[in-house]
């Protein structure tokens, strides 16, 4: 089986891959016991009969992945992934840079009407008719040696990916949606998606009916946990589970005895230095100026007219989705429509940008302003332009 385990073979393969206009790329990794994903395998395939191989970064003969990383950053080669975000995160963590340009087949499938977040196995079956062997899907990729079956499974992910890529490109071109995928893939190139900033870790957590004092403590504790997890390269939950963290921020204990009474607090926090550290962090957070405390997010109130607009927007979104052959939530989320109903053109939502504005958002604005109406025509619900005379025409 074509698996690369030495530096010379890696450099020869990269030299061959460098001549390809695009490469299919996939990774196998583990992160159950680590904070950062542990890269175990990188699979690459080139089109038109080009070589497909799996690079083993754990092999003793691989000294440096720099030749492969250079390919992933080469602007002349399109890197094709499926559900790219985790793969991009690995490369970003290793190099501090994101591969570019990138084509995500999951995103392309979305704009071609295959639904939201379609899985690789289902997409391959729908596009090519091939069946993907998922027998090694839940294998431990860190164990060596890898079996022939494992390597064959891993390579199947990139060889089929090339067929899917070609088919989706044809569909995008036929439907005039190449610009859609360009916009969606550009969003994946934002480094903020892959940066681990401890000060922002609290935003992942939910506290019911929080006050500002709960949030300032949550921010401090979440940042501390994030740094501890990064330093030890261990999952966040191994330091302190989410439920325990939010419990501390909600209850605001002031002593070791009060900490001990909380649910989900590990014994090491009740009896050791970690509990004292948590108490000190909470005290420091509450001592900061209140004007710097994060404030609870409050949804803007919705009056009766806005509620009526929201229902019309939902109906129009359903009509747009049917016309385009896509899932409604690809066009806009329910929260986006709510913001639009309340704030109108001032809403800062994806629906009012790029291809979504052209395909759906503008008609939403026209509906809100009275330039468009929804009504029955020939027994069907349709959107109709409102003329200057006040009549409607489809």
Task: Describe the 3D structure.
The structure is a single chain. Helix content is 49%, strand content 11%. It is α/β, with parallel strands linked by helices and 394 residues long. It has three domains: 3-193, Ribonuclease H-like superfamily/Ribonuclease H (Nucleotidyltransferase, domain 5, 2-Layer Sandwich), CATH 3.30.420.10; 198-292, Orthogonal Bundle (DNA polymerase, domain 1), CATH 1.10.150; 304-393, Orthogonal Bundle (DNA polymerase, domain 1). The strands form two sheets. Strands 1-4-3-2-5-6 form a six-stranded mixed sheet. Strands 7-8-9 form a three-stranded antiparallel sheet. A hairpin with a 2-residue loop joins strand 7 (372-377) and strand 8 (380-386). The longest helix is centred in the middle third of the chain and has 28 residues, at 148-175. It is flat.
Write a compact overview of the structure shown:
The chain is α/β, with parallel strands linked by helices. The chain has helices at 7-17, 66-72, 85-95, 105-111, 120-128, 148-175, 178-187, 212-232, 236-239, 242-251, 256-260, 267-271, 273-287, 304-324, 328-331, 334-343, 354-369; strands at residues 3-4, 22-30, 38-45, 52-55, 78-81, 102-104, 372-377, 380-386, 392-393. The strands form two sheets. Strands 1-4-3-2-5-6 form a six-stranded mixed β-sheet.
Give the overall silhouette: flat
Q: N- to C-terminal separation?
A: 60 Å
Query: Would you tell me the overall average pLDDT?
Result: 91
The succession of helices and strands, N to C, reads EHEEEHEHEHHHHHHHHHHHHHHEEE
CATH class call of the largest domain: Alpha Beta
């Amino acid at each position: 089986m074509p698996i690369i385990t030495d530096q010379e073979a890696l450099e020869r393969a990269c030299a061959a891959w460098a001549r390809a206009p695009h490469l299919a790329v996939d990774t196998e990794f583990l992160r159950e016991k680590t904070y950062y994903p542990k890269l175990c395998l990188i699979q690459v395939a080139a089109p038109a009969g080009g070589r497909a191989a799996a690079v083993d970064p754990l092999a003793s003969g691989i000294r440096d992945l720099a030749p492969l990383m250079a390919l992933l950053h080469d602007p002349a080669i399109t890197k094709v992934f499926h559900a790219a975000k985790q793969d991009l995160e690995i490369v970003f963590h290793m190099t501090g840079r994101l591969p570019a340009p990138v084509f995500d087949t999951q995103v392309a499938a979305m704009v071609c009407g295959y639904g939201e977040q379609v899985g690789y196995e289902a997409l391959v079956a729908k596009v090519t008719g091939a069946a993907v062997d998922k027998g090694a899907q839940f294998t431990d990729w860190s164990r060596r040696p890898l079996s022939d079956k494992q390597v064959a499974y891993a390579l199947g992910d990139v060889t089929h990916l090339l067929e899917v890529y070609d088919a989706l490109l044809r569909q995008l071109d036929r439907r005039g949606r190449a610009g859609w995928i360009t916009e969606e893939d550009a969003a994946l190139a934002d480094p903020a998606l892959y940066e681990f900033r401890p000060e922002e870790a609290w935003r992942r957590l939910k506290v019911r009916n929080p006050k500002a004092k709960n949030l300032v403590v949550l921010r401090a504790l979440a940042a501390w946990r994030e740094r501890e997890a990064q330093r030890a390269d261990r999952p966040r939950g191994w330091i302190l589970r989410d439920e325990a963290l939010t419990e501390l921020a909600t209850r605001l204990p002031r002593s070791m005895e009060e900490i001990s009474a909380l649910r989900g607090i590990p014994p090491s926090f009740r009896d050791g230095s970690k509990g004292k550290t948590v108490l000190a962090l909470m005290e420091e957070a509450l001592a900061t100026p209140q004007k710097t405390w994060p404030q609870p997010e409050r949804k803007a109130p919705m009056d009766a007219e806005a509620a009526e607009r929201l229902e019309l927007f939902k109906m129009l979104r359903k009509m747009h989705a049917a016309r385009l052959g896509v899932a409604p939530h690809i066009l806009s989320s329910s929260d986006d429509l709510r913001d639009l109903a309340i704030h109108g053109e001032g809403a800062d939502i994806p629906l009012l940008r790029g291809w979504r504005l052209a395909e759906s958002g503008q008609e939403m604005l026209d509906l809100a302003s009275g330039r468009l109406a929804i009504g029955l025509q020939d027994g069907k619900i349709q959107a109709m332009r409102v003329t200057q005379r006040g009549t409607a025409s489809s």
